[in-house]
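Researcher: Go.
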Amino acid sequence: MTIEISFELNDSDLDHFRKVMKRGVEFVQNKSEEEIIQPAAELLEKLEKEGTVMPHFVAERLKELTIIIDMLKDDEWALPKDIRGRVLSSLAYFSDPDDIIPDDIPVLGYLDDAIMVQLVVAELGPEIDAYTEFCEYRRNEGKRGGDDVSREEWLAAKRTELHTRMRRRRSRRGSRRGGVTVRGSGFTLW
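Model: Structure:
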């Protein structure tokens, strides 16, 4: 048997998550990229290795952190500095030792993390979409091969196209994604 539970975050709820995210961003201000990425990566490791007890929907949301981490670590994707900072900021919450709901509370301990991931994924929609397309392109082109253009050249051309599209979508954003209403110039967590 499955049961569906849904809830809506109103503006004051979202303001609370923005404040928590801002606190996280301030917490990681003087940390290296690796120090920011590591807590999110450790959360994913814990999820995989320990078989931590958590609801399925929470586990599925937390797995979405993988693409954000991959995006930062992928040298061939070469995120521009301004976008890289934005993506790193999205992981700041996972570095903050003061979780909204402590992770050691059975079943519910990761609910706040899942909500934050959902908000981050909605916020980073253009970046995630572009990166996903880049990875698919790289996989398909790598299989196709050919001698007329080097790997670096076809990756650079696709990367430039996708970075441009990503910026354009970010600037005109005003759609609904992942259960979060994005208004005007964009919903912003931080």
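Model: The longest strand covers residues 176-177.
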